């Protein structure tokens, strides 16, 4: 924070007390996030990959040499103040879950064992019709979806008594593909559908509704249709509880949102882009089912269309072919391989190729994104200029399929997303926006 806060910065409520982070789906991503935060708190590791912890933000002109860390500029919660809880379908404690996920090495995991054993997920609201490949061991039971959602509300209320502020982030598995229907169009219709067990209300929506009813920000880290429906957008604004989503932008799509803007700004044409993934974790197992893969496919396919805008650049992009594949391969575990073959063309139509093979670690990439989102959403909930907007589009940087206001197309270009995020931080802190125009350096 600056020495003399601007009126905008002064209006932001301080990050005092404990920030409770609630996580539906405490598997590989959640355990990697939580163990990682604890490792950083103990001084055993650096928070690599986290913008809130390691990123900087330029203030004023380049010649001002004023580039503080983001965490020193904006009133972001401290890692020491984070408290974790959540829900899962497999039982056991987080040490058991982390050991099953096989993301962290044995020595590091043993260092964290007492801390992780102290966190035991609550039984989850789960319906196998939406995630067919998983066999639950510990779930909630109730007479209808309304009953289950209210049980989640009770869990949230208990956690609120132990913490000062809260955020919820969905890191559960990808649900089957659902499109908007009548039950999603208004809060009244949605709440009637909860009582009537409407099949178009998925488990993730129960968490989103319960969370927003309690006035808590909700983040969707999966491609599910959840808080991105009219009913829950309405509830978000009414309760002043921000929402954001969807689907963490981690590996292959992250690279795609870097390369596609590069092709576009150089006016290079695209004939085809073939993307395939192999991974062996629980996410891969779930996505091996066609109905669940359809949800992920929709999330991944939209990126190129929005960035390249074929209708505005028909000579370059009108007929490009885009294919996405995900293949479950158990030996690979959480160490995903994303391979892209890109057929492009340049001057006079001459063909070229670009090939990318990203051997990445899925949860290692996702964990710092989840951390940033929780901290930024807590900031949004304390910021008068942001909390009643509903969708926090400024956080598009973190998502494959960013939520936007109805009628507004999403921005996928990673560099524009980064500028949007940092300019939003400057705006709420009362600092001048950075436009990169630069003409003022060359005036008389």
TrEMBL record:
GO biological-process terms attached to the record: inositol biosynthetic process; phospholipid biosynthetic process
Gene3D superfamilies the UniProt entry points to: Dihydrodipicolinate Reductase, domain 2, NAD(P)-binding Rossmann-like Domain
Domain of life: Bacteria
GO MF entry, a single one: inositol-3-phosphate synthase activity
Domain Myo-inositol-1-phosphate synthase GAPDH-like: 251-363
Family the UniProt entry places it in: Belongs to the myo-inositol 1-phosphate synthase family.
Protein name, entry field: Myo-inositol-1-phosphate synthase
Gene source species: Terriglobus roseus (strain DSM 18391 / NRRL B-41598 / KBS 63)
């Amino acid at each position: 924070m600056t020495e003399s806060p601007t009126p905008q910065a002064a209006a932001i409520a301080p990050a005092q007390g404990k920030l409770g982070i609630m996580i539906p789906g405490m598997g590989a991503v959640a355990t990697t996030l939580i163990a990682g935060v604890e490792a950083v708190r103990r001084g055993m590791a650096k928070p690599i990959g986290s913008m809130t912890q390691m990123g900087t933000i330029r203030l004023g002109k380049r010649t001002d040499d004023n580039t503080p860390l983001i965490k020193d500029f904006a009133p972001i919660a401290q890692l020491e103040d984070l408290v974790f809880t959540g829900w899962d379908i497999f039982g056991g404690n987080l040490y058991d879950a982390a050991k099953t996920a096989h993301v962290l090495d044995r020595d590091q995991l043993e260092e964290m064992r007492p801390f992780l054993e102290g966190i035991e997920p609550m039984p989850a609201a789960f319906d196998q019709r939406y995630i067919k490949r998983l066999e639950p061991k510990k779930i909630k039971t109730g007479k209808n979806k309304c009953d289950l959602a209210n049980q989640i509300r009770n869990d949230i209320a208990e956690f609120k008594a132990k913490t000062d502020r809260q955020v919820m982030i969905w890191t559960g598995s990808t649900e089957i593909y659902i499109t908007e229907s009548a039950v999603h169009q208004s809060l009244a219709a949605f709440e009637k559908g909860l009582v009537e067990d409407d099949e178009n209300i998925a488990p993730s929506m129960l968490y989103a509704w319960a969370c927003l009813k309690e006035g808590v920000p909700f983040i969707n880290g999966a491609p599910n249709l959840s808080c991105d429906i009219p009913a829950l957008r309405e509830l978000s604004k009414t309760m002043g509880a921000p929402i954001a989503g969807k689907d963490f932008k981690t590996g292959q799509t992250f690279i795609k949102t870097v390369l596609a803007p590069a092709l576009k700004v150089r006016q290079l044409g695209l004939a085809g882009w073939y993307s395939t993934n192999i991974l062996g974790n629980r996410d891969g197992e779930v996505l091996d089912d066609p109905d669940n893969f359809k949800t992920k496919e929709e999330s991944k396919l939209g990126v190129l269309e929005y960035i390249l805008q074929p209708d505005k650049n028909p000579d370059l992009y009108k007929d490009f072919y885009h294919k996405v594949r995900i293949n479950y391969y158990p030996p690979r575990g959480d160490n995903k391989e994303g391979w892209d073959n890109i057929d492009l063309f340049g001057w006079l139509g001459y063909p070229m190729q670009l090939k990318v093979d990203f051997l990445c670690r899925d949860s290692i990439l996702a964990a710092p994104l989840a951390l940033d989102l929780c901290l930024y959403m807590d900031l949004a909930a304390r910021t008068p200029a942001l909390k009643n907007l509903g969708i926090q589009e400024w956080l598009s940087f973190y998502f494959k399929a960013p939520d936007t206001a109805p009628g507004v197309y999403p921005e996928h270009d990673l560099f524009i997303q980064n500028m949007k995020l940092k300019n939003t931080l400057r705006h709420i802190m009362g600092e001048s926006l950075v436009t990169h125009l630069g003409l003022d350096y060359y005036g008389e």
